[in-house]
Amino acid sequence: MRGSFLRRRLLSSLTAVLGVSVLVFLLVHLIPGDPVDNLLGERADPIDKLEMRRCMDLDQSLVVQFGRFIKNVGNGTLGRTCPDQRRTVTSLIAEALPSTIALAGAAMFVALIFALPLGVAAALRPRSALDAGATIISLAGISMPSMWLGPLLLAIFYVGLQWLPGPADQAGLPGLILPAFMLGTHLMAMLARMTRSSLLEVLGEDYVRTARAKGLSSTVVVLRHALRNALVPVITVAGIQFGSLLAGAVVTEKVFARPGIGTLLLEAISQRDYRVVQGCTLVIAVSYVTVNLLVDLAYGLADPRIRVQ
Predict the structure, then answer these.
(1) 176 and 215 both lie in a single domain
(2) What's this model's pTM, rounded to 2 decimal places?
(3) What is the 3-state secondary structure (H, E, C) of the chain?
(4) What rounded mean pLDDT belongs to the chain?
């Protein structure tokens, strides 16, 4: 049964990745303009333009280009860069991806470390001043635009207080703090509201009242019996949003001048470098569906009833 579930999930994930790959391939080729002019400039030598066109397979039909794209996916190179064909798109992504994963992981850590205590505290004291404060913080986090929050954090903690490094120095753990807060604030607000509503619903269940009737402490009842079952929808949102963090790090990396797959993708789009755009999008799609698959498997850890089923 478990093997059948995994096969179905893997098949649906592969189908989704293939669909995204085909869609991106078609869309980047439908964008008006000549990518060779973007890469070399309109005044480049015609021979250089012809050589670049051959390098990018633009002298071939769309069907041939798609076939070579699938071949490059199959051999793991995702194609070679132009005009320097000694490097592959995979090597470019491999250099940029760790920075984006570190940023997404730090943003998720910031979101969870604030969202779970805030949501639990608001659920334990509904309609109180604490609940109202948690609601205000959550609404502010959801409503605050990232493009405004990032410069605000820089103005306060880098320019004003000079406590944290700015865009010129993003290496090491201190350089992750401000970008992680910028990227994780919206997610923190969503998870806090989700934790509150889910825990409030669980606290009214019969098994929670039974646990209290047995004389268990409030801490044991909340952490062992209530919170564990309330985490299933929270895991869903956190997993889906973590996949979105990998794709949504473009703005954060741009504001804080961080290297990463978002920066690489943005530069490739501006230059219309088809292979890099397709490679980055494919990696983001694979990361997204992989995280969703792991979320499905994590349900069993949070709720034993799901594991039994």
Answers:
(1) yes
(2) 0.78
(3) CHHHHHHHHHHHHHHHHHHHHHHHHHHHHHCCCCHHHHHHCCCCCHHHHHHHHHHCCCCCCHHHHHHHHHHHHHHCCCCECCCCCCCEHHHHHHHHHHHHHHHHHHHHHHHHHHHHHHHHHHHHCCCCHHHHHHHHHHHHHHHCCHHHHHHHHHHHHHHHCCCCCCCCCCCCCHHHHHHHHHHHHHHHHHHHHHHHHHHHHHHCCHHHHHHHHCCCCHHHHHHHHHHHHHHHHHHHHHHHHHHHHHHHHHHHHHHCCCCCHHHHHHHHHHHCCHHHHHHHHHHHHHHHHHHHHHHHHHHHHHCHHHHHC
(4) 79
